[in-house]
C-alpha cells in the first residue's frame, strides 16, 4: 500500500464491485423516513442529551482521561479488567482494525451470508477471500455449515447473533458451543450489535468465553439500541494480547469528548432500553402483520429490522419508496433481491406500509 495512506483512506478507496452486487443502499438524497440503517428512532436518550450539553465545556481538552475512565466503566460493566477493552469510533472501525491486525492478505474470512455488509468491504480491502455460507431455510445462521467450511488459511470467523440483515437469532447455547470449539483453531469475531433488542434474560454475550481465555473477540455498539449512531462509539472485549494487536491499528484518539460522555451516560440505561425495545416490538409487529397479510416470506426478527422476499422487483420498490422519501435497503441473496426495512416509529411504519401498498397496486 502507498506510504502515507491511512487505513480510513484505504477503506474508502476499496473496490466496491462485489459490495455493489450484494448490497444496495443507493446514492440517494437524504430521506425523510429513514428505514435503511437500523437506527433507534427514539435516541439519543435524555441521559445522553444531558451529558452532551454538560461536556461542551470540555471540548477544548483532549479526551485522554475520558477514554481511560470510559474503558474502566466498560470493564466494570463487562466484569473484566480494562486491558480487555478496546474503544473505537463505532464497532465497524473496530472490525476494520481487527482485519488489519490479522494479516488477512491471502487468507480467508469466513461467515454466514448475508451478514454485516461492511465485512465484504474489509475482505476486499485486506485482500482476503470471503467465504460465505448461506443461511438455513429460516434465514438463520447455519453454524454446522460454517464450521465445516473452516480451512487451514481461515484467519477470522465472523458470527453475528442476532444476525444483520436477516434479524434471526440462533440459540445462544449453540452459538457458544460453536465459538468455544472453533476458537481453538481460529479467532472468532462475535458481533453483538443487536443483542440488547432481546429481553434482558435472553441476552447471552460471548464475553463469558473471553473470560475463560478463549480466542474470541466480542463487539458491541452504542449505535443501535442506545441511539447514538451519529456519535460513533463501539467497543470490543477480548483477551489483552488480542486487544493490543487490534488497537495498534486504530487512529491515535478514536473517540471525541462528546461521544464518550454520551455513551458513558447511556450505558446500562435500562429505562431507555426497555422503552426502545417495547416500542420497537410494537412497530415490528405492525410490519410483520403486513408481511403476513401479503403472504411474504421473512426472517423471524429479534432486532430492529426485518428482511423479506417481496416476490418481485425489489429494486423497483426501493426506488419508488425513495421517490416518496422513504429509505430502505435491498440485498441480493440466492439470485433474488430481498428488502430490509428498519423499524422506525409506529407512525413511520404505517407510512411505509401505506406507501408500499400504493406502489405495488
Ligand atoms: N455490526 C452490525 C451487525 C451492524 O449491523 C452494524 C451497523 N449497521 C455495525 C456492526 C456497525 O455499527 P457501528 O459501527 O455504528 O458501531
From TrEMBL:
GO MF entry, a single one: pyridoxal phosphate binding
Record's protein name: Histidinol-phosphate aminotransferase family protein
Domain of life of the native organism: Bacteria
Protein family: Belongs to the class-II pyridoxal-phosphate-dependent aminotransferase family. Histidinol-phosphate aminotransferase subfamily.
CDD domains xrefs: AAT_like
Entry keywords, A to Z: Aminotransferase, Pyridoxal phosphate, Transferase
Domain Aminotransferase class I/classII large: 31-350
Organism: Chryseosolibacter histidini
Record's keyword annotation contains Transit peptide: no
Pfam families for the chain: Aminotran_1_2
